[in-house]
Amino acid sequence: MSTPTSDILIIGGGVAGLTLALMAAEHFSVTLVRPEHDEKGASRWAQGGIAAALSPEDSLEAHIQDTLIAGDGLCNEQAVRFTVTHGPEAIQWLIDNGVPFTPDTTDGARYAYHLTREGGHSARRVIHADDATGRALIDTLSHKAAQHPRIHQRNDLTMLGLLQDDDGGCRGAYGLDAQHQLHRLTAYNTVLATGGASGLYQHTTTPSPSSGEGMIMAAELGAPLMNLEFQQFHPTSLYDPDGPAFLISEAVRGEGGYLLDEAGKRFMPALDPRAELAPRDVVARAIDAQIQKSNLGHVWLDIRHLGERAIHHHFPTIVAHCAARGMDITRQPIPVVPAAHYSCGGIATNHQGATQVPNLYAVGEVAYTGLHGANRMASNSLLECLVYARSCAQALREKKAPHWKNSTPSGPERLATLSPPDQDMLMALRHELRCIMTQHVSIVRSSAGLKTAQHKLAELSMRLNEGPVDQCSLEGIQLRQALLLAKLTVAAAVTRRESRGLHYSTDWPSGQPATAPSCLTLADLTPGTVA
């Protein structure tokens, strides 16, 4: 390990990771570790689009103010202004790279591409590629990355932890291949683009969500994690207990979809003047309340009044997916429920993606930039991925190359291969973890429920520690990481004695006059709670 494998190691192949790889490879050698199949990442499943002030009828200041309002007093205004201001140039970069955004073909269009409107936005500012924007981005950027001579891709590894030198700096990462062989990838600079923590919950909007593994990797090197308690639940995920997760885009409501209760009546206009276009926290809580007092287990999202032609034009992917499940959404309303969707908290970073650990960066959903505050406004997530990945690449270009020191591996010397009974046990423990988080740490919370969650998570850790499973296994390490993040999430929720944005407490239904982002490290877990 006397020389680095590459200048920059990027872990994660979604929009943030690919954007950074393409920008950084203009000057550096890049190793990009990404899943073998793109569908495992959240980016591909993004439907709605990217928010940016692009139309002459819109403005940067309007986008900034909408974001601050949605963030409910916890946004970092500097981060909001930085992100929104750099949005249009990030969109132009995508256009220049061939992303096939949907054109606006109407007479007298003020902007070349169709812009839709989503919850919390005061104007149409969401640029999209039909209703499959994430897929268009990933297909375009991954094709360019595959052709770039300075980007070396690895899709045969599952990364499990970071390497650290004697001064506390990050020097790369270690992981396993399909044969459970240990690999160490060293680098001058390491960037985490590993996604959020929706996988801590039972119901999510993506089939294979991450469970915050990258957040814990950084925390193990001492990086603070901020605002973990603010987990966004998308109001409208397809309700199908027998099928995989599938998001029904916010744009469906943006184009005029109505939410209906069990009796087939709209309920949002009576709760908020913005009705179905209220911010996600408001809509998700309203839907949850309707579900609690009905026997359906879901509410309805109705777009039949838009007409068959408009539905097929704006939502071809959703039409096709629902049809494959036996639903004709041009003739019947869509059954929907809230589902874990986006982590507003994560690894604390600056505007260049730098963490408090030397030579370690984080971009995308894994990072906390201060943009989202207590609630993410629709389609600001892909914007954040683009802006901060581009900013990080620029900062790395301007950074003086760090002096190379031998790394001290922070991971195990070996990793075990589990037997089928061990696999079954770990799957059962992970299911139990998700049930605990879903029951006690989701849309509506209580002090008693959070205390119950703390107790049950501690018990789960003891069972993992004392069980027959070798924890030096891929599955054992990942479950331990998920447990640690779940405990930190609950700890952050316990300390927030108010209701704000995505965090609603029955014991503290009002907001506090003075509030601040939460900030925790692994050292904040009380003795005996660490898995």
UniProtKB/TrEMBL annotation:
Keywords: Oxidoreductase
EC number: 1.4.3.16
Protein name: L-aspartate oxidase
Record organism: Vreelandella aquamarina
